[in-house]
């Protein structure tokens, strides 16, 4: 009798398994935080989506992680940038640095907008988020170098980079430039805003580093076939 009762309660009882970092029964469903999924009318859903919606009304759902949100202001690229700025787990300070950076960019662009003549005001971008994404896109390298050993010798072989690697290098270069070449009396957010504004118009040291990497890949193009050999 006890075995049959435990079998009935098993799907609903949260248990701790030996799986690393898992505290949920496999019966639990994955959380869905996108609002547009719940706002879709039932007539537009497929048979599989209708079944999933019915299951969510009957089965328990895992708690969403801290990094997941349904806010319309959430930006995964900004979140990754904050995590790369963060040192010693102080995420509050990293978030403050990025917030001050975006505010500084906004102030500079609005001041530039008011000083510009009437015909050129439309060309000035005042949205700091657009400037941030434009700067990162301009800093992304298309190709990189990989060290490959052939015949007891290492060659720098040019290889195409994935989208994640491109974004990582752009963020890494931007943060390294601000930390290493910053004047001791200049705040981090001031230097970061300067570099982002310069990179948004394809200027600055980060853009130079990207072009240097492209030149090195072009110079080593004779070793490109070592990727497969």
Structural account:
This protein has 229 residues and is mainly alpha-helical. The chain is 52% helix and 7% strand. It has nine helices and two strands. It has helices at residues 2-9, 35-39, 47-58, 76-85, 91-115, 128-139, 163-180, 188-200, 205-219, and strands at 143-150, 153-160. The chain has a two-stranded antiparallel ribbon. A hairpin with a 2-residue loop joins strand 1 (143-150) and strand 2 (153-160). Helix 4 (76-85) crosses helix 5, helix 5 crosses helix 6 (128-139) and helix 6 crosses helix 8. The longest helix is centred in the middle third of the chain and has 25 residues, at 91-115. The chain starts with a helix and ends in a 10-residue tail after the last helix. Mean pLDDT is 88; it is low at 1-10.
Please describe the topology of this protein.
Elements: H1 2-9, H2 35-39, H3 47-58, H4 76-85, H5 91-115, H6 128-139, E1 143-150, E2 153-160, H7 163-180, H8 188-200, H9 205-219
Antiparallel strand pairs: 1-2
Helix pairs in contact: 4-5, 5-6, 5-8, 6-7, 6-8, 7-8, 7-9
Can you give keywords for this protein?
mainly alpha; 229 residues; single chain; two-stranded antiparallel ribbon; 9 helices; disordered N terminus
User: Could you give the distance between the termini?
Assistant: 66 Å
Discrete helix count: 9
**Largest beta-sheet details:** 2 strands, antiparallel
Number of strands: 2
Low-pLDDT windows of residues: 1-10
Please tell me how large the radius of gyration is.
25 Å
Which range does the strand content fall in? 5-15%
Percentage of helical residues? Answer: 40-55%
